[in-house]
User: Which sequence fits this backbone?
């Protein structure tokens, strides 16, 4: 199985800040990397696919980059509704695997 | 707008079988063109980790996580626009929120629609 490791596990930031979350795969997944946002008590919401492509309806302050084994999710200017937990997931090989999550909290 | 809804018992006794159904509305399980949609089950343990369980295609072909393969069966009923999960011989370690989700090849195989989740507790 491909192991997905996110860093940091938690992050405190303020509204308006630029934040970056990292995701590393245990082997190359080319660009087969997805990002999700999850709020308490809700299902994950699909944000980004193929490492850098924004899912329809997702605000442009979200962006993704990377290829191979190292990927990042960037939120350019945090909004109050962005405080949530973020997960990466590889869709390169079976079984699909997720990172352990990064909890983004208000400072 | 596609919607998915999980249903099934919220409490299952140890050693018994966990059974959940996902009903798809706003779109057909059959739709999406060749190879476009796969119908997935994912679970989330208390305290956050997400584990992919497996998927089914509308034709009935499946792929299961090897860690669960001996206990999992996913089936599809296209006439009812539903797919189902059976997990046998459950233990407390299977206590989790179970999600159904659509995998869409057109968006890199991402899971673009999710159900709201069903909490299943394994306890006597």
Assistant:
């Amino acid at each position: 199985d491909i192991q997905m490791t996110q860093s940091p596990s938690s992050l405190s930031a303020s509204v308006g800040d630029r934040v970056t979350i990292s995701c590393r795969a245990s082997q190359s997944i080319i660009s087969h990397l997805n990002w999700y946002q999850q709020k308490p008590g809700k299902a994950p919401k699909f944000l980004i696919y193929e490492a850098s492509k924004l899912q329809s309806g997702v605000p442009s302050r979200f962006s993704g980059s990377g290829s191979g084994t190292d990927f990042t999710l960037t939120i350019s200017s945090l909004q109050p509704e962005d405080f949530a937990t973020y997960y990466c997931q590889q869709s390169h090989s079976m079984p699909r695997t997720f990172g352990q999550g990064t909890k983004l909290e208000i400072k | 707008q596609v919607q998915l809804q999980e249903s099934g018992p919220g409490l299952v006794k140890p050693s018994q079988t966990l059974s959940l159904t996902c009903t798809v509305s706003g779109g057909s399980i059959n739709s999406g063109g060749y190879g476009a949609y796969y119908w997935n089950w994912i679970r989330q343990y208390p305290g956050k980790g997400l584990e992919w369980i497996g998927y089914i295609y509308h034709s009935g072909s499946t792929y299961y996580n090897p860690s669960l393969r001996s206990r999992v069966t996913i089936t599809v009923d296209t006439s009812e626009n539903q797919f189902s999960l059976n997990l046998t011989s459950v233990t407390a370690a299977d206590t989790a929120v179970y999600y159904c989700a659509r995998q869409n090849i057109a968006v890199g195989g991402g899971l673009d629609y999710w159900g709201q989740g069903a909490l299943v507790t394994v306890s006597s």
Q: What stands out?
A: The mean pLDDT of chain B is 94. The interface with chain A takes residues 48-52, 63, 65-67, 99, 101, 103, 107-117 of chain B (CB under 8 Å). Residues 10 and 35 of chain B are 33 Å apart (CA to CA).
